[in-house]
Amino acid sequence: MIQPQDDRRFLLYQQKVRQERLLVIGWQLIICIAFFGLWELSSRLRWIDPLLFSSPSKIVTLLKTKALDGTLWVHVQVTLLETIAGFVIGTLLGVTLAALLWWYPRLSNILDPYLVVLNAMPKVALGPIIIVALGPGYVSIIAMGAIISVIITTLVVYAAFREVDGNYLKVLKSFGANRYQIFKEAVLPATFPAIISTFKVNVGLSWVGIMVGEFLVSKQGLGYLIIYGFQVFDFTLVLSSLLLIAVFAYFMYKAVERLERAIIKQ
């Protein structure tokens, strides 16, 4: 007698969740269409300066032209590869450093003030030094993408490691587990949500680092197109590049979300 009622409640709950998801997606589409529609209208009616703010139709035309002649894909590929490389290297280095700090508490005590200072330091200001040290090329740009996220990743993930319930660690120790087994079986699984959250933050930080690197030194990439657009006063090119960056950053964020769901299911 109780089972059918439970099934019905569960079906109603699923239906409510689907309706809520559709409602959210609907509002997101409405806001997006309204934004670009208002932008196009404002440009055509000259409520805003069309030379400075361009318009969605001009951006689409420019992107279509560059896509057809093949010049767009070179810049997109360069920036995407640099950003993914910077994201992966920065995140892996940050998680590795956090694990080392957890593994060696004395090292953590020694490095704590330096990490705080490095986190407060504007990493963007290191750009010229990195370029001089590593040379004006892809390596220095990727290094900028990695450096801008590695310290914050280290601090956030290390804090998550330290917040794992001490009772779990005591239980494992009572069964004779060594430090590696404690880290593998308790600390790392318990902090996956924090690590995934750091991935999401690093998506944005990596894009910032790569853009700064491309502004300073590149001859290809979306950052280069932005700088070139400013130099020749082609703001349609500038806004096209910014729009592409926003789209690719969104898809990187969604990829991290899919990774999060896959890990949670396991």
Structure write-up:
There is one protein chain. The chain is an all-alpha fold. Helices cover 87% and strands 0% of the residues. It is built from 12 helices and no strands.
Number of helices: 12
Would you tell me the overall average pLDDT? 89
Helix content: over 70%
Q: What order do the SSEs take from the amino end to the carboxyl end, as H and E?
A: HHHHHHHHHHHH
Span of the ends, CA to CA: 33 Å
Write down the Rg.
24 Å
Major sheet size, sense and barrel closure: none
Number of strands: 0
What oligomeric state do the depicted chains represent? single chain
Q: Label the structural class.
A: mainly alpha
Cα shape: flat
Unreliable spans: none
Taken as a percent bin, the fraction of beta residues is under 5%
